[in-house]
Amino acid sequence: MNASYKNNYKKFFRHTYLVFAGMFIAIPFIIDAVAGVRPQAVSFFNKSLADTTPLIRKDTGKIPKPAAIPPTIADSTQLSKGLDTSGGTTVDTLFIPKISKDTLDAPVNYKAKDSIILVVSDKRFYLYGAANTKYKTIDLSAEKMNFDQETGILEATNAKDTAGKLFGGPVMNDGGQSFESDTLKYNFTSQKAKIYNTRSQYGEGYIHSQQTKKAADNTIFGFKNGYTTCNLDTPHFSFRARKIKVIPDKLVISGPANLEIEGIPTPLFIPFAIFPITQGQRSGILPPQYVVNQQKGIGLENGGYYIGLGEHFDLTMRGDVYSYGSWSLTGSPTYRKRYKYSGGLNLSFANTRFGDPAVKSEFSTSKDFRITWNHSMDSKARPGVNFGAAVNFGTSSYNKYNVYDYNTRVNNNIGSSITYSKTWQGKPYNLTMGLNHSQNLSTRDVSISFPDATFTVNTIYPFQPKEMVGTPKWYEKIGVSYNTILRNQANFKDSLFGKQAMFDAMQTGMQHNIPISFSIPVFKTFTLSPGINYTEYWYTKQFNRKWDPNKFNPGTGTNGAIDTAYQAGFFAARDISASMSLSTALYGMYQFSKTSKIKAIRHVMRPTLSASYRPDLNSKNYYELQYNKDGDKQMVSKFDGAIIGVPSPGAFGGLNFGLDNNLEMKVFSKKDTTGNHERKVKLLDGFGINGSYNLVADSFKLSTFSLYARTNLFDKLNISASGNLDPYQVDNRGRRLDKYVWQQGKLSLGRLTNASISMSTSFQSKDKKAKAKEEKIDSMENVQGADAAFAAQQRQLQMVRNNPGEYVDFDIPWRLDLSYSLSYTNTIIPDSGGVVRRITQYVSFNGDFSLTPKWKIGLNSGFDFTNMQIAYTNMYISRDLHCWQMSINLIPFGTFRQFSITINPKAGILRDLRINRSRQFQDL
User: What residue ranges are annotated as transmembrane (predicted)?
Assistant: First the structure.
């Protein structure tokens, strides 16, 4: 090849390269000018124009049909010629035109798994395979999308797999609203959408619509709709309505609606429906529940109105009305101030009518009330100060005529407490004040203590220097403290509440206590603790008792009883004692062979021995009282029955002794394959004996022995027992003789005067969702804390007690709780006329089990061995119907009998939509 030919070849190659380079530079601008594409689209898509050239599908080798949409692109820059007048030469000048009116006000991001196609001539984009488009708050996903730039409409559809099954349907999320459909069309310009065969969720509810229109303000209009709380694609039930309107975050409103169950219309029609979807407080009507009561007739219960009064306060009013004329009204306000306090009040009035008003001899009424109040204070609100209240007070017959749940019926005792406490920061002072109330609904006895106060000065060391240097001297360990108790109490029948007799029964007392003590180690393993204790009692009433042979004794049914008179005034009693105690701990261990599964058993003994002296400063306050017609007498105090206690009679100078034991063993864990891991098993958490011996007494020098034991076997069986042994003999009338029981030749520590034992255990199968439930409870505690809203949820447990079958846990296949209690007394009670022996036994059990994963049977019951009868029994059967639940509750026998069957949705928004049939019977 000659040089001339080579030069021509190089020139040709250079010119060709420049032409192609110029074409590649100019093509984007030519396309922009022809298609009218806006320059913002490149940033919207985050892709180059080269990516938008038509693609050939790999599977067919053809350009696919339009199916998906990309966002719009703005007009590109235009290249034009300009004239430079200064130099007379022509130069290229770049002009940026005005943005089109249809330009979007926010970027659009898109992606697709399979392919993205731009057809320039049609001004359309197509996205295939798990396509996703995001614009402002809208997030749209579908298998296929296509976008028409001229109309600004995006269309999203599903696709069919090789088996002909639809998949990848459009899912649109917009500001918390979710839509699932077959086809969706969205206009980017007007921001309106039309959706076909859609399923959307609002709070706990779901709306299935044949066609849906979404306005620019997110208001939804549905055509041929169904509202349900069932989360299945084909719901078990729904309210069918031709038209529905959804106001975002507020309401779902429909016209006439018909209830369908399993796709079958029912005769139940409603003229309109309003379903709230707003979070937070909303005032509204609380629908009542239909019941049938043998005593009160046909009734409507728990109907009322809820009033939301802002962030800090709300009020719930509920009422019951019955065909026989009985009624009740309950007001329940709650209040809260975050990080300060929260509380709630229930005030109930009830009027129960019995018999026929036309027959006055058979007609009566019972007017009752009940007040409950709870208040809690945030510990961080005022450090060192706390105020709390838990009040439950009412007439004894309120529960009898107005409460039907198991727990309340079997519990005859209610109580209240209101407390205020203050701790001075940096000082040893503590003050607690309060009001306490206890009430026995069976005997109608009421006890109220107010004001109740305790002031304490913690132990201070007056001889201890501010800065300790070296080993402290013995006297530097001397500690002094002070404690005073103020009690004001009235015991009366509930019919006397607020009357003069209640105030006449009030008694006041005050107790002061000053202990002085210190401890020093001796002999390395022993601790010596000397101490002095001074106590003073102040009374405002003195009890004068005497035997009256002519007074009727209801206990024996004959004449002869103790008559009690009160003497008002100021009375004082004092007591002082000095003591010195010595204590230590002894350890013993027995080790087994290496082949044994038990490695060792350890026994720990903690003996204590003390010497004390107490002079007789109260002999004038004790006297002998005859307590039966046989002339038997017993030493009693003028202040027996006082609310602050009484000092012990006589002098004491002797020894106090005690022995506490602990027994445990070490075993090899089966879970450890190496066999080296050990675990401790407690055999007895504690068991021991306490007593004393009075060296200066003229008779009965040895005290009774106090025994106790407690353990938790295998972390399943809780056992606790206690009792008292009297080491002295008694005659045939139960009077003590100054002779020990072992002097009769019996190998015994004494006669059992009282004892009690209780056992309880619980078994259940593994909870399938235990971890998820714990996380939910933790999140509730972290979010709500001591807020009154959480307290209101706790008060809703009353509904659980009323209908336990509606609140069973289907995640636990079976559960069983057992408890047993036994008590025995054999003592002389003067007011009863002599020796009284009592034995009470009671066993209670409750549990449930699943016949199938959807059927559960439960039972709460017990047996009273004292009266040999079955205790209050409640049986229930529950059926899980997915989005509904059925429960049957039965109380088969007893004073109060009840039968009810309830079918209701699980969702809270439809909780009051229930089918209920109840029957209640009561023995009057």
Answer: 12-31
**pLDDT band with cut points at 50, 70 and 90 for residue 198:** confident
Instruction: Tell me, yes or no, whether 244 lies in a domain.
Output: yes
Rounded to an integer, what distance in angstroms lies between the CA atom of residue 151 and that of residue 188? 9
Query: What is the DSSP pairing of strand 153-157 with strand 138-148?
Result: antiparallel
Same domain, 211 and 140: yes
Distance between CA 833 and CA 828 in Å, rounded? 8
Domain that holds residue 265: 109-276
DSSP 828-843: EEGGGTEEEEEEEEEE
- β-strands 915-922, 289-293: how paired? parallel
Q: Which of 276, 301, 324 is the last residue of a domain?
A: 276
Cβ atoms < 10 Å from Cβ of 226: 24
CB 375 within 8 A of CB 411: no
Q: How far apart are CA 179 and CA 199, in angstroms?
A: 6
Tokens 């066993």 correspond to 843
10 Å Cβ neighbour count for 140?
23
Q: Which helix (H) or strand (E) holds 544?
A: strand 526-553
Helices assigned H by DSSP within 671-787: 770-784
Domain presence at residue 449: no
692 within 8 A of 703, measured Cβ to Cβ? yes
Q: Is residue 484 part of a domain?
A: no
Residue 87 C-alpha from the chain's centroid: 88
In this structure, the answer to whether residues 649 and 755 fall within a common structural domain is: no
Residue-by-residue DSSP string for 638-669: TTTT-TT--PPSS-EEEEEEEEEEEEEEEEE-
Which of 66, 76, 95 lies closest to 34, judged by CA?
76
Among 653, 640, 649, 645, residue whose Cα is nearest residue 619 = 649
In this structure, the answer to whether residues 729 and 679 fall within a common structural domain is no
Alpha-carbon gap, residue 705 to 690, rounded angstroms: 6
Residue for token pair 């006890």: 447
Report the C-alpha dihedral over residues 380, 385, 389, 390, rounded to 10 degrees.
70
Contact 166, 182 (CB under 8 A): yes
Same domain, 747 and 636: no
663 and 727 fall within a common domain: no
Q: Which of 253, 276, 299 is the last residue of a domain?
A: 276
Q: Is the pLDDT of residue 67 over 50?
A: no
Give the rounded distance of the alpha carbon of 765 from its chain centre: 22
CA-wise closest residue to 752 among 720, 726, 729: 726
Strand partners, 509: 487, 539
Q: Judge whether 289 and 914 are in contact, CB under 8 Å.
A: yes
Q: What is the pLDDT of residues 100-125, one digit of tens each?
A: 665 667 788 888 988 888 888 888 88
Quote the radius of gyration of the chain (alpha carbons, Å).
43
Q: Do residues 726 and 587 both lie within one domain?
A: no
Picking from 68, 271, 13, the residue whose alpha carbon sits closest to that of residue 184 is 68
Q: What digits encode the pLDDT tens for the residues 290-321?
A: 777 777 888 888 899 999 888 889 999 999 99
Q: How far apart are CA 446 and CA 829, in angstroms?
A: 22
Angstrom distance (rounded) from CA 395 to CA 406: 19
Identity of the amino acid at 910: L
Burial call 756-765: b when 16+ CB within 10 Å, e when fewer: ebbbebeeee
Q: What is the C-alpha to C-alpha distance for residues 491 and 726, in angstroms, rounded to an integer?
A: 32
Cis peptide before 288 (omega within 30 of 0): no
pLDDT over 90 at 27, yes or no: no
Asked if the structure places residue 688 within a domain, the reply is yes
Q: Name residues whose C-beta falls within 8 Å of residue 21's C-beta, 6 or more positions apart in sequence.
A: none
913 touches 228 (CB < 8 A): no
Instruction: Compute the half-sphere exposure of residue 295: CA atoms within 13 Å on the CB side of its CA.
Output: 23
How far is it, in rounded angstroms, from Cα 659 to Cα 608?
6
686 alpha-carbon distance from chain centroid:
32
Q: Could you tell me if 660 and 627 lie in one domain?
A: yes
Q: How confident is the model at residue 96 (pLDDT cuts 50, 70, 90)?
A: low
* Structural domain count, the chain: 3
